[in-house]
Prior knowledge:
Blueprint: H1 3-41, H2 51-54, E1 80-83, E2 86-88, E3 98-108, E4 111-121, E5 126-137, E6 141-151, E7 156-167, E8 170-180, E9 185-188, E10 192-195, E11 200-203, E12 205-208, E13 214-224, E14 228-238, E15 243-246, E16 250-254, E17 257-261, E18 264-267, E19 272-283, E20 287-297, E21 302-313, E22 318-328, E23 333-344, E24 351-362, E25 368-380, E26 383-393, E27 398-409, E28 412-424, E29 427-433, E30 437-444, E31 447-453, E32 455-461, E33 464-478, E34 489-503, E35 507-514, E36 518-523, H3 556-562, H4 565-574
Antiparallel strand pairs: 1-3, 2-3, 3-4, 4-5, 5-6, 6-7, 7-8, 8-9, 8-10, 9-12, 10-11, 11-13, 12-13, 13-14, 14-15, 14-16, 15-18, 16-17, 17-19, 18-19, 19-20, 20-21, 21-22, 22-23, 23-24, 24-25, 25-26, 26-27, 27-28, 28-29, 28-30, 29-32, 30-31, 31-33, 32-33, 33-34, 34-35, 34-36
Amino acid sequence: MSKNSGKNIYGHKMRVAILCLLALSMVNIFGGGVWAQNKGNNAGKKPKKTSIQARKPVTKINRITPQIPSANRNQKNKIFLEKADKLIADEKISTEYQILRGNVEFSKSGTKMYCDSAYFYEATNSLDAFGHVKMNQGDTLFVYADVLYYNGQDEIAQLRYNVKMENRDVTLFTDSLDYDMIENLGYYFEGGKIIDSKNELSSVYGQYEPDTKNAEFLFDVELINDEYVLHTDTLHYNTNTHIADIVGKTTIVSDSSIIYSSNGWYNTDADNATLYERSLVVGKNGQKLTGDTVFYDRKKGYGEAFGNMILTDSVRSTILDGDYGYHNEQTNISFATKRARAREYSRKDTLYLHADTIRTYLENDSMRVMAAYHRARFYRINIQGLCDSMSFTERDSMLNLYDHALVWSDNRQISGNEINVHMNDSTVDYALLPNYGMMAEHIGETYFNQLAGKEMKAYFKDEELRQLDVNGNVQLIMYPMEDDSTYNKLVDAESSYMKILLKPKQQIEKITMWPDVSGNVTPLYLSKKSQYYLKGFGWYDALRPKNPEDIFIYPKEMEQLMNTEEIKRRNVRKQ
């Protein structure tokens, strides 16, 4: 080794030794002070890490374990892991959740949750559960699904795929159910159905409260049972009472009827409904019942309407209306009261009829009868009338008027204790007055042609009187028209029988009286006013309905007429 090389090695060692001494000096000056401070203030504690070490990220995750049985299970919004076959905590997978596999069980405030596997977010009390998911509250509420997402912050459980919720006798089916555990409310929004002991209900959106048993359905709602099907877009329903609240446009279809309503309720147990806002019930035979309020009992087959009731029979071209009405689709009995009215519209000229009560029913041979009582009045353009009571029988097409019956046509008036009118294809064929009758024709001023007899029968053609037969106690007062269309004499005659033939436009063609005739012909200028009228004659044009609305007017004179002693006696006999 040369001298210079030895000097170089020696110099290098010296420099290293100097550097080591400097390093030790720095530790003594700075490190020693810090250590002394830590030792004095934090006895028994580890020294702090250097700044370089502190900047490294912490990736450690705390491993959870099932909770001990003695822990308080009623802590608010606290989820307890009760058991699992396997727990995995791996910061390489996630630092937010741990993985649980095999027979996983959780509990929360009395609710149990089971699944095959789960992600458990302990910090937020949340979890994702997969496979054979089951939730139950006691022994009354059970929920099943393939997947569960539970958010512990808002306490919403989102169940997906093959979801089924059971609450005693109520079962809900859907593929997407959100369950609010605070409100104890479940709701689906992608279609579902609820089945109870009585009905099956389906819709696009639905919600159910196990506590109150209330359910709400929206969009394409359908309620089905063995008797009928209900369609609507909005329905409220209680699975305990089985009452459906109708809050939107609704149709209820059964074998016996169809109901249209927008407001009301239907008791599916009792099979009856109370409906509002002009609801409509359509019977299988074509009858339609509507009113401000309608009560309908489908099982018993009858409906009642209150306020502006209208009952339409399209088969018989009739409408029955009033402030109150009743219709029984099983017995085919209907009636209306309080401003009751019947309308028959089989022809262009509608018949309007009013009475205190109007009733329709079927006889044993299934022929319909319409009865109107009391204070009946009717109007048709070519015929008007009134009486105490009247009826129309479908079997023989007879219109029967009883007690002070009055009928007008043009300027003619027919009156009698009873008038029977036979209809042929909705037009008058003949009229019979079986127990005394009187016919009068106003020809001008105070002059009236008058005819009375024990029995009268009038025949019509093309709605015009063509023949009149009178049998027994015939009495006649007549003012023959002269060729110049004037009247200048009065004829009064009596006989046992009489026949009058008339031409079109009601022109008299021939009068025949037999066997014995007595009477007089008196010039008008020599006649006395006492000769002008038959005994019992009265012209009641003031009582005559002049238009369809007049049938509701009941003049004082009519009240006096109907309150005669004879009418009272007849009404007592009827009762």
